[in-house]
Predict the structure.
Amino acid sequence: MRAELESLLRARKLDVTLTTTAPWQRRSADDLAATGVASLDEALGGGFRRGHLSEIVGARSSGRTTVLCHTLGAAVARGELVALIDTFDRFDPASAAVAGLDLSKLLWIREAGDAARALKAAMLVLQAGGFGVVAFDLADVRPPALRAFPFTTWLRFARAIEGSETVALLVVSEHLARSPGGVTLALEPPPGMSRARWAGTSHRARLLHGVALRPRVSGGR
């Protein structure tokens, strides 16, 4: 009876709740969403874990937007749809396209600094399902506004994608939240910033080239 139940749970991808095997022993390539950046995927153990909330943390010029675009682009290259909730309308489609992101596979929700509206939009997208990666860019939201969100907000995010194929990503300037199986990918501004070059010419966020990312991963592995 137990074996039959476990088989049914695995068929519906709910076996993450089983305790007969440790999570890191159950993990397969299908459980992970690679970023497409070899050094990051190595640090992440293969990529961001599906069905979990993770975060990309970094100050400006640390490479957080570059990592985001590569992660979205890698998902699209696998045939997945992706979504970005852009709280301050800073996303630069031209630079993202140069990084290899097929914009026709991207749902881009643009806000004008209204974090509460952006939060509602992000929850609706997560609940709708069908996306390989859903990113919520909160990098420029002031800390007091972030702290105004109830802590249960992030529990609801994690719950909305639990057992699914979706990776939920928060893009933030400092640690905010992750699910138990998610990770914090912290990026530090690399040395030699004077040698870095920006891609794109618009007033929006652009991508750094010519520098090595310096990731630090915690949680979920």
